């Protein structure tokens, strides 16, 4: 090692050029590294949606959901199957083992779907398969509102003009359209007149479809030219459609005499409101790996261009952009890193007191940070909050070896009148190589296993570990090989003492306090032990969480309506409600939506999605914290629902069943499926048994006075009309059940029979019953005429009975069993009661399987592994089984400060804190290494154990204190940062633990070393 160090000492220009090259490479890597708030997580989840139009939830469950679930049961790597059956659709969510490639999972699911689809009922759409979305929230939201208040114009402009332009932008993934209106032609049939003409509604719809279509009629030859023959029947306008004459069985039929023709707004599938008015909206999702900052710039540029084109028709507003908050959080972490670096440089200058030496020590910060950025670029990582946090946390660690190296060189060569030779400097630098390697390895070895942690732990904190380990390794290489070369290259005879007078007073006070501790250490052992126990208790009492949520940028208001509420009614409520909320002085922007379009599989893939839920996003004014706005919003919502919905002009609005005002779920929690509530499932052999058992559990909680805290999910009914055919009568008249159902479907839902092109835009034409004549009631449906096999007409009521009943609006299943979910708050009494009930009833169990619970053992194993690696590293370094245990005495001391620090900074005991504690174990051992190394060197020089340890502790007190202070000052800005909760808890645990353990180690370890050296001498 000495020869290698001397090699670099003789080539200072090579060292300077190498450092410069690392810096230039880091600058280039910084410009090309993609920015993101969090590392990308490939969630191993696949959702399967199956549509069966016109089918009730109960029938969807038995005819579609259960057969498809059975087909998925043998898919390799599958961990859990969840499903929700709603009217017209079935949604199945498949969770795979973490680490499974989503593309591979989709391929396996697609094979199972292809095998089961032929056995599904006729009319079922082929199931659509989609992988779990890496980001469930849109990157940007654009509202489009017509200046003439024509919602169809707004939707058409958003769909055909704006969306097509935005799709050309590099980095745009999917774009979903919501809200607005779709115009369609309506032909409201006169059912009695059709019956008199001998036509059923379905026969008329088929006849009209055939007469208004362009039908290919083959090819004809004209000499050497081939002609395509088309039978053209498509009308050019609604007026032309009304003038058509159809050939009916009895006589020519004039369409204009069969009912009313008009152009109206089609039925809404989604609604969007913005500041008190309905609008159309485009939700833009970012493509994985795309730079969000560049994407936002391109979106804003495109909107400026489109505003000049369409400003005379519509108002186009960018109401949500994720980039500013991302930039804010990244700048906040970068500022914390810069402040930490400045604080470290200040500490080095103050304590070293030699400008040249302080500059050399401070240079380790940009060198190590540059190396960390370069390694991130080489490994294909992004510059996100985790990697930036790792660089910020490493700032205080990388200068430790540099401080020790400079302290050693200054003590030996600081007062030399001539420049020392390369051999002399190399010999001194090589003397601390062993302790430097041990110190670096004990710190780095703690973070290396983080990269290989299972599940989301490795994905989340892998970037932190890579940035931190690469920075620490670069810091050691710089201190070991570059500092000796630069020290000799810049050597001058400085007359300034390396130790300030006030620091001499600190050293004197330390030596004075250390004497009684070494004479009677038992009392101090007891104090240190009690402090460690107390700190551990405080640590364990902190609220536990897998991840602590980041600060919010908006407030959400969720309004639930009765199942079956039509979107048009929700839209009317949303307009009035958002208008009231937007009038609050603390709110800047209000927008919200309900429902989903056909192509929004990602939105409908959420197991908690409800078509009847209106979610309003409230963005507060600049400078107002969302947390302080919640009470104002709660009062405004209560006043609107409990007062305005009963009186005034809006008293006819649908009345909500429930509402809540809350902060949005943290993105990390959302991606990992974490919840702020406990979710239990009640399983039964069928839906009825699940419902009975749920009532029993609710009664148990009611007996414990916890009824108000229990919320049932996938629960509730909606009204339904069921036709029960009289089989004998229907058979006598030759009317099948399918004929009756088809007649009802045409009258209520209608068929799109043809498509017109009006002014270059498609216009669907729907044939249906006149709602003014056929209100949806049992009595009116009984009077619908049905055509018999003999050509006569008979009323539907003669062929069966129609009953009105309450049917399940949604049916949930978990692992191929019917369940009802219960959400419980994270309150100890409720959790205790739920635990007892779960032990008593096997069919009542935890269903959410939180990531904290799933990977808690992995975290604990990681802590144990970190301790074992530290022990084995030091054991191999010192060829001793006992000495590593002595050096690891500093680890319990760290708990004395980690717990109070988490309490002081109001941080939770989350995965970041656990990783910080593990890193702390490697840090605090370094203090013992520094003290032991100098004590052993003095013993080899002939000193007694007491004098060797006492003198060595006095000599090494300064580098120990300086390295601790540099780390503490580097961690302080990160711990005080309001953003970046994971880094905040990690920094808080490390800061408090290092502070207390450094003080205790300086006083407790010396008497322990004395006994160890005496034992070694007498062995």
| Ends apart, CA distance between termini | 32 Å
Which overall shape is indicated by the principal axes computed on the Cα atoms? elongated
User: According to CATH, what is the topology of the largest domain?
Assistant: Multidrug efflux transporter AcrB transmembrane fold
Q: Give a count of the beta strands, DSSP E runs of length 2 or more.
A: 31
Instruction: Give start-end ranges of low-pLDDT stretches.
Output: none
| Arithmetic mean of pLDDT | 81
What count of domains describes the coordinates? 6
Taken as a percent bin, the fraction of beta residues is 15-25%
- SSE class: alpha+beta
Percentage of residues assigned to helices: 40-55%
Query: Biggest β-sheet: count, sense, barrel?
Result: 9 strands, antiparallel
Task: Provide a descriptive summary of the structure in words.
- The protein is an alpha+beta fold.
- It has six domains: 1-32 and 353-498, Up-down Bundle (Multidrug efflux transporter AcrB transmembrane fold); 45-131, Alpha-Beta Plaits (2-Layer Sandwich), CATH 3.30.70.1430; 133-182 and 268-329, Alpha-Beta Plaits (2-Layer Sandwich); 184-214 and 239-265 and 718-808, Multidrug efflux transporter AcrB TolC docking domain, DN and DC subdomains, CATH 3.30.2090; 500-550 and 851-1019, Multidrug efflux transporter AcrB transmembrane fold (Up-down Bundle), CATH 1.20.1640; 677-716 and 811-849, Alpha-Beta Plaits, CATH 3.30.70.
- It contains 33 helices and 31 strands.
- Strands 1, 2, 3, 4, 21, 22, 29, 30 and 31 form a nine-stranded antiparallel sheet that branches.
- Strand 2 and strand 3 (89-96) form a beta hairpin.
- The longest helix has 38 residues, at 981-1018.
- The two termini are 32 Å apart.
- The mean pLDDT is 81.
């Amino acid at each position: 090692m000495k020869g290698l160090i001397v090699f670099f000492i003789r080539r200072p220009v090579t060292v300077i050029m190498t450092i410069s090259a690392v810096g230039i490479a880091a600058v280039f890597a910084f410009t090309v590294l993609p920015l993101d708030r969090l590392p990308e997580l490939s969630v191993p989840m696949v959702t399967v949606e199956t549509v069966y139009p016109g089918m009730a939830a109960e029938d969807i469950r038995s005819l579609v959901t259960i057969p498809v679930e059975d087909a998925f049961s043998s898919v390799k790597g599958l961990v859990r199957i969840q499903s929700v059956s709603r009217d017209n659709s079935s949604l199945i969510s498949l969770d795979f083992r973490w680490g499974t490639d989503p593309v591979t999972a989709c391929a396996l699911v697609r094979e199972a779907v292809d095998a089961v689809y032929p056995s599904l009922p006729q009319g079922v759409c082929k199931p659509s398969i989609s992988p779990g979305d890496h980001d469930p929230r849109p990157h940007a939201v654009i509202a489009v509102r017509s200046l003439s208040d024509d919602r169809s114009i707004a939707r058409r402009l958003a769909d055909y003009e704006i969306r097509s332009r935005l799709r050309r932008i590099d980095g745009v993934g999917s774009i979903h359209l919501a809200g607005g209106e779709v115009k369609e032609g309506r032909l409201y049939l006169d059912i009695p007149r059709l019956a008199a003409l001998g036509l059923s509604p379905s026969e008329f719809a088929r006849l009209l479809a055939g007469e208004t279509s362009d039908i290919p009629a083959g090819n004809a030859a004209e000499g050497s030219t081939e002609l395509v023959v088309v039978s053209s029947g498509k009308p050019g306008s609604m007026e032309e459609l009304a003038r058509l004459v159809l050939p009916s069985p009895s006589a020519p039929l004039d369409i204009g005499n069969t009912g009313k023709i008009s152009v109206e707004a089609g039925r809404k599938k989604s609604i969007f409101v913005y500041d008190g008015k309905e609008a159309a909206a485009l939700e833009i999702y970012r493509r994985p790996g795309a730079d969000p900052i560049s994407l936002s710039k391109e979106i804003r540029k495109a909107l400026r261009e489109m505003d000049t084109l369409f400003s005379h028709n519509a108002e186009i507003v960018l109401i949500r952009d994720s980039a500013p908050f991302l930039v804010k959080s990244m700048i906040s972490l970068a500022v914390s890193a810069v402040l930490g670096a400045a604080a470290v440089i200040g500490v080095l200058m103050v304590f070293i007191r030699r400008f040249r030496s302080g500059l050399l020590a401070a240079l380790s910060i940009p060198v190590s940070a540059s190396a960390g950025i370069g390694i991130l670029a080489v490994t294909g990582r992004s510059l996100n909050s985790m990697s930036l946090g790792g660089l910020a946390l490493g700032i205080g660690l990388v200068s430790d070896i540099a401080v020790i190296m400079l302290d050693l060189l200054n003590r030996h060569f600081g007062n030399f009148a001539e420049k020392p030779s390369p051999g002399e400097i190399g010999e001194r630098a090589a003397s601390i190589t062993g302790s430097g390697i041990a110190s670096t390895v004990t710190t780095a070895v703690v973070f290396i296993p983080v990269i290989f942690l299972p599940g989301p732990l490795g994905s989340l904190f892998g970037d932190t570990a890579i940035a931190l380990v690469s920075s620490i390794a670069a810091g050691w290489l710089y201190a070991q090989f570059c500092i000796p070369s630069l020290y000799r290259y810049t050597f001058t005879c400085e007359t300034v003492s390396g130790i300030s007078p006030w620091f001499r007073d600190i050293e004197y006070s330390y030596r004075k306090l250390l004497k009684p501790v070494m004479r009677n250490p038992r009392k101090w052992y007891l104090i240190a032990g009690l402090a460690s126990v107390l700190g551990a208790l405080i640590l364990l009492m902190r609220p536990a969480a897998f991840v602590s949520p980041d600060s919010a940028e908006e407030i959400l208001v969720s309004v639930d309506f009765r199942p079956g509420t039509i979107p048009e009614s929700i839209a009317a409520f949303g307009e009035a409600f958002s208008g009231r909320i937007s009038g609050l002085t603390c709110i800047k922007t209000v927008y919200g939506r309900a429902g989903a379009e056909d192509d929004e599989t990602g939105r409908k893939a959420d197991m908690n999605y409800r078509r009847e839920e209106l979610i309003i996003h409230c963005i507060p004014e600049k400078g107002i914290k969302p947390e302080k706005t919640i009470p104002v919003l709660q009062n405004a919502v209560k006043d609107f629902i409990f007062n305005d919905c009963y009186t005034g002009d809006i008293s006819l609005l649908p009345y909500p069943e429930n509402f809540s005002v809350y902060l949005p779920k943290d993105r990390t929690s959302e991606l990992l499926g974490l919840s702020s509530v406990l979710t239990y499932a009640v399983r039964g052999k069928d839906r009825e048994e699940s419902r009975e058992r749920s009532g029993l559990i609710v009664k148990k909680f009611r007996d414990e006075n916890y009824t108000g805290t229990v919320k049932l999910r996938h629960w509730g009914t909606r009204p339904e009309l069921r036709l029960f055919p009289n089989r004998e009568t229907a058979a006598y008249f030759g009317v099948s059940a399918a004929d009756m159902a088809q007649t009802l479907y045409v009258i209520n839902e209608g068929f799109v029979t043809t498509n017109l092109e009006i002014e270059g835009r498609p216009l669907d034409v729907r044939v249906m019953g006149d709602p003014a004549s056929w209100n949806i009631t049992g009595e009116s449906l009984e009077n619908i005429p049905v055509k018999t096999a003999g050509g006569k007409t008979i009323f539907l009521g003669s062929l069966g009975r129609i009953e009105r009943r309450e049917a399940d609006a949604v049916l949930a299943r978990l692992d191929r069993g019917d369940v009802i979910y219960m959400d419980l708050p994270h309150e100890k009494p409720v959790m205790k009661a739920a635990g007892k009930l779960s032990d008593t009833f096997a069919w009542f169990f935890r269903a959410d399987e939180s990531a904290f619970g799933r990977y808690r053992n992995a975290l604990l194993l990681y802590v144990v592994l970190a301790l074992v690696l530290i022990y084995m590293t030091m054991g191999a370094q010192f060829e001793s089984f006992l000495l590593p245990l002595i050096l690891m005495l500093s680890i319990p001391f760290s708990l004395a400060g980690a717990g109070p620090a988490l309490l002081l900074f109001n941080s939770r005991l989350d995965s970041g804190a656990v990783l910080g504690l593990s890193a702390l174990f490697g840090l605090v051992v370094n203090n013992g290494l520094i003290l032991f190394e100098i004590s052993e060197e003095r013993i080899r020089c002939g000193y007694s154990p007491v004098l060797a340890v006492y003198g060595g502790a006095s000599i090494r007190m300064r580098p120990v204190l300086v390295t601790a202070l540099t780390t503490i000052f580097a961690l302080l800005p990160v711990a005080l940062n309001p953003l970046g909760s994971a880094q905040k808890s990690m920094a808080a645990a490390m800061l408090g633990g290092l502070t207390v353990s450094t003080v205790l180690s300086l006083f407790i370890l010396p008497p322990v070393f004395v006994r160890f050296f005496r034992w070694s001498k007498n062995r």
